[in-house]
Amino acid sequence: MFDTHCHLDLTDFDEDRDQVILRAKNTGFDYFMIPGIELDSINKIISITEKYKEIYFASGIHPNNAADLIAEWDNCVIENSKYEKCKAIGEIGLDYYREYCPHDVQREVFGRQLEIASDLELPVIIHCRNAYEDLWPMLSDWLKGGHCRTGVFHAFDETSVEAMAAVELGMKIGMGGPYTYKKKNERRIEIIQLVPIESILLETDCPYLSPIPHRGERNEPSYAALTLAKIAEIKGISYEEADKQTTENGLAFFGIF
Ligand SMILES: [Zn+2]
What average pLDDT does the segment 51-79 reach? Predict the structure, then answer.
């Protein structure tokens, strides 16, 4: 299995990071992706990826951290992407749910990071919250603008219509804990049904968004097995098949061989 979106660098894991990673490995996880959210955390992320050969990372600035950036921030994103284990630009996007940064600044920082990704020929990890109407025109224009441009909609939270529009342009759909929720979840069940297994990436977004029955607790990569089981169940395929396919998807998407 491949947890394609886990914030293992956050302080939530400082006390027991090694055990968390060991539990994930014992559950069958062979690969992990830590998305970047700010410039300051790069040294910590690098040291984690140096310790564990199966952990990769992405360089980027989260929309909630896009206010008051230093002048040379974009060069820092580029510099941080030059490490061998950096496999994407992310997580980038727009977040109009938490008002941490003016919308026009978010769009500017997002647009610049899309440019960086195409210059470096890296995929993007997209964060989109209450901002689809502004984000999709920017992202779809970018996707159509070059052959090697691709991305994953992390913690996808729109409807199956938007999911299929993204898949048609070659995007992957990131599925995590909310896809296991039991109540009022028809929208996500339909997304699992319609999106081809080849376009699905498994993720946790840990320490956030724990799957059932851990909702409300700290999330960790091993719990993504519960989300995978749900995907297999809805798709009517075996757990092993869902594991094999989503792992291959992740490796191909991030260019890990
Ligand atoms: Zn995230």
Answer: 97
